[in-house]
Amino acid sequence: xxxxxxxxxxxxxxxxxxxxxxxxxxxxxxxxxxxxxxxxxxxxxxxxxxxxxxxxxxxxxxxxxxxxxxxxxxxxxxxxxxxxxxxxxxxxxxxxxxxxxxxxxxxxxxxxxxxxxxxxxxxxxxxxxxxxxxxxxxxxxxxxxxxxxxxxxxxxxxxxxxxxxxxxxxxxxxxxxxxxxxxxxxxxxxxxxxxxxxxxxxxxxxxxxxxxxxxxxxxxxxxxxxxxxxxxxxxxxxxxxxxxxxxxxxxxxxxxxxxxxxxxxxxxxxxxxxxxxxxxxxxxxxxxxxxxxxxxxxxxxxxxxxxxxxxxxxxxxxxxxxxxxxxxxxxxxxxxxxxxxxxxxxxxxxxxxxxxxxxxxxxxxxxxxxxxxxxxxxxxxxxx
Length: 384
Hints:
Elements: H1 3-12, H2 20-34, E1 38-43, E2 46-50, H3 53-58, E3 64-68, H4 71-76, E4 81-82, H5 88-100, E5 102-108, H6 119-126, E6 128-129, E7 136-157, E8 161-171, E9 190-191, H7 208-262, H8 267-294, E10 298-322, E11 325-334, E12 339-340, E13 343-344, E14 351-352, E15 354-357, E16 363-364
Parallel strand pairs: 3-4, 5-10, 6-15
Antiparallel strand pairs: 1-2, 2-3, 5-9, 7-8, 7-10, 10-11, 11-12, 13-14, 15-16
Helix pairs in contact: 7-8
């Protein structure tokens, strides 16, 4: 294994108190899941994995394998491959990780993991339930929620090439866009030891491929306006070059037309000039196309890395009365950041604190959204 690979591996995996065996297992299983594979863990040091055929073939990895992260387990399990530092199969997993990006999991260290005694006061201070009666507190539970923080590198390409780094954060339980909440967690310490949240049940999660798909939709929404802006900036250069090209061929064709007219008495010469005129017109179209393509801006995105941030949250269930209807609404209080999290509009995906009741039993971010229909899964959680 190359020194650079070892350094990358050291950065990519957590080194807790339980030794490298557990760390390597987490690193490999995270990679397999991120690559679209399936993981089964029949034992603490034994993992069965299934990778997509194209991924397995590209990195010379087995499509189906039993991976042992302990020497004795490897000896006692027929067909198991021992995974350790320096083993060939780990080198290939590192290569896979280098292509799909680093995957790390970090656990928030919270000062107190309990339901705040003044939780309702904090909720009502932060969230406004418009056109509704005062909310009634029903239940509160504490669970560990996961946020996937994706780093994408976007390359903008025209006659020049430059790049931009874009961060997208997605709640793996609700698929809400958490990107604007990231500044609140800057003061939170995230460690590699899961013991920080031991005893706290994990909230249900969506499949990672669905989380990534949601992140890509938000990425497109962010890249699109930037692409339009950059395209407008290069359009002036395109127009200037087109003026030069068109001017050149306008003069060339005018000269050829004059020569063709002067050769009226010489059919052969006239035919040769006519052929040159046709060739010049075709060349003009080709040059115009070349200039337009030269300044056409395209965007290419590369998945660089993802950090899975695990944080304890209080899930408070409230009942809110609007006219003759009772709405049930979940409110999340982040114990790591000590803050009430905004709602996510089921219509447009925007985050908001000022809520308006809709007739179908949900809260939306503005009154005009209340009469709209709830979007399908492919449209939800993505701002327009």
